[in-house]
Amino acid sequence: MITEAIETFIEGQKVSVRLKSGANAVRKARADSPSLAAGVISFPRDRINEWPRFRDHAIRELQVRYADRLRCVLEHLDERHPHVHFYLVPRPGESFGKVHDGYEASREARKASGNKIRSAFNAAMSAWQDWVHEAICGPFALARLGPGRSRMSRRAWELEQQKAALAAEQVQASRDRYDLDRRRRQLEIEQKVAKSKHADSWADIEKTRNNLGLLYASLTDQQRARVTMEIPNAIELMETGGRLTTKFRPR
């Protein structure tokens, strides 16, 4: 599946060009042009019981950001920490920058004056890591940077972890409120539908009652006697028009 997507993307990179001689030619993608972006998202082994929920959440966020450009996700549980590998391929005709923020930023930097390609690349990838933390890792109380990278003392790192845990709890509380509100709206819709169906059913009953009343009025005495013999309580039912008693009448 990935191979086919890559081949389709490369095929889509072909463009028609006009040579100096005036002839038309098809220019293929360069042999060293990137076509596949890959990444890894991991989770602490000591929280393995939370891994399935984190994994599914990460995949959902990747799907939201990259849509059908997300071609494959592989789960690994046999290494130090559980993690997933994900693979991205641009759509035919798209730039590779659609799946790699750093590539897109460096390409745009080449068009500007000054040698800022590397800094543009680093800034874009740092922003992408911010997105990963905000959308995927933050809700699970994972810090943006580790203690060594941040040059923090152990105490400062513990405080940072507590802040991350508190932020995750706030995010989860917000999601819980959203889910409850969505469920409430869904129940309201279901109640309205049920009431509508209930009203339709009662209208059918009223129509049947009226029809029975009309039928009763049209019968001769002989026909009424015959119906009574064949169907016990039929005349009583027809006289009442098939009404339900107040006890069983739906509200």
Plain-language structure description:
It contains eight helices and five strands; from the N terminus they run H-E-E-E-H-E-E-H-H-H-H-H-H. It has helices at residues 2-12, 51-66, 101-111, 117-137, 147-150, 154-218, 221-230, 234-239, and strands at 15-18, 24-27, 37-42, 70-76, 83-88. The chain has 251 residues and is mostly helical. The protein has a three-stranded antiparallel beta sheet, covered by helices on one side. Strands 1-2 form a two-stranded antiparallel ribbon. The protein is elongated, with a radius of gyration of 35 Å. Residues 241-251 have low confidence and may be disordered. Helix 3 runs antiparallel to helix 4. A hairpin with a 5-residue loop joins strand 1 (15-18) and strand 2.
Query: What oligomeric state do these chains adopt?
Result: single chain
Share of residues in helices: 55-70%
Give the ordered list of helices and strands.
Answer: HEEEHEEHHHHHH
Give the strand tally.
Answer: 5
Low-confidence stretches: 241-251
* Mean pLDDT over the full residue set: 76
- What spatial order of strands do you see in the largest sheet? 3-5-4
What is the number of helices? 8
